[in-house]
Amino acid sequence: MSSQIDAVILAGGMARRMGGDDKGLVELNGEAMIKHTIDRIKPQVKEILINANRNQTRYAEFGFKVISDEHTGFLGPLAGMITAMGQTDADYLLVVPCDCPLLPTDLVPRMLAAIKAEDAEIAVASDGEYEQPVVLLLKPSLRDSMKAFLEAGERKVDFWYAKHHFVVESFSDQPNAFVNVNTPEQKQRLAMEITK
Ligand SMILES: Nc1nc2c(ncn2[C@@H]2O[C@H](COP(=O)(O)OP(=O)(O)OP(=O)(O)O)[C@@H](O)[C@H]2O)c(=O)[nH]1
Ligand SMILES: [Mg+2]
Questions:
Q1: What are the binding residues for GTP?
Q2: In the predicted model, is pLDDT for residue 105 greater than 90?
Q3: Distance CA 159, CA 51 (A)
Q4: Interior/surface letters 14-24, b for 16+ CB within 10 angstroms, e for the rest
Q5: Average pLDDT over residues 189-193
Q6: How do 27-28 and 5-11 pair as beta strands?
Q7: What is the CATH number of the domain that holds 102?
Q8: Which pLDDT band, with edges at 50, 70 and 90, does 196 fall under?
Q9: Over the chain, what is the mean pLDDT?
Q10: Which residues bind GTP?
Q11: Distance 3 CA to ligand 2 centre (A)
Q12: What is the total count of domains within the chain?
């Protein structure tokens, strides 16, 4: 039987570098940033959860369930993952950020194959050089481990997965796949690239 995969799109941060504008909702080439991410991910998973801590009504307009961090206080991406892991019955949860509009269209099959080949618990994407700590495929049963880690005051996703059996899947064949839009300047630059 094939594995069921759900996804959470993380849009729960404060987006300080974007000047406080909600990063998932800023417009990139006529569409909300998160819509680009949704379009990349939707064909690859069963259900999508959108993790947001403000503008929840606006996020709901994309047609997916919106979930807010169960640990309040903007504790970082782990808080969004923990919440999503508690709300899925899938075999694996794909975690992606809302601000990577060019994610690979073959992200899930490659991450899943990497996990299965090594009987690992987690796959982490890499651009060939750097690991992408918020682009993960993981087993929802890891929730208790992640929750304990967060509640011990830890915040770094890569420190958490280092405690588990993880594999790195490289997407060096797709140099722009993890282009990350954190500032208005980066958004401008990407908009010009896309329309070229
Ligand atoms: N649920 C949740 N997600 C978060 C939180 N902080 C960051 N994220 C998400 O984690 C991903 C990576 O974080 P950043 O790129 O630093 O985003 P950010 O923290 O909103 O932006 P900055 O304030 O500029 O650092 C983004 O998809 C964020 O939405 C948080 O407190 N809760
Ligand atoms: Mg941040």
A1: 10-12, 23, 51, 69, 99
A2: yes
A3: 22
A4: ebeebeeebbb
A5: 90
A6: unpaired
A7: 3.90.550.10
A8: low
A9: 96
A10: 10-12, 23, 51, 69, 99
A11: 32
A12: 1
Q: Mean pLDDT across the stretch 46-70? A: 98
Q: How long, in residues, is the chain?
A: 196
Domain that holds residue 154: 5-195
pLDDT value at position 1? Answer: 67
CA of 2 to the centre of ligand 1 (A): 32
Ligand nearest to the CA of 134: 1
Indicate the annotated binding residues. Answer: 10-12, 23, 51, 69, 99
Proximal ligand: closest to the CA of 15: 1
CA of 128 to the centre of ligand 2 (A): 23
Find the ligand nearest to 97 CA: 1
Q: Are strands 131-138 and 92-97 parallel, antiparallel or unpaired?
A: antiparallel
Residue 2 reports pLDDT greater than 70: yes
Pocket-forming residues, ligand 1, beta carbon under 6 Å: 10-17, 23, 51, 69, 74-77, 79-80, 97-99, 134, 182
pLDDT at 177: 97
Q: CB neighbours of 189 closer than 8 A, spacing ≥ 6?
A: none
Residue 96 pLDDT greater than 90, yes or no: yes
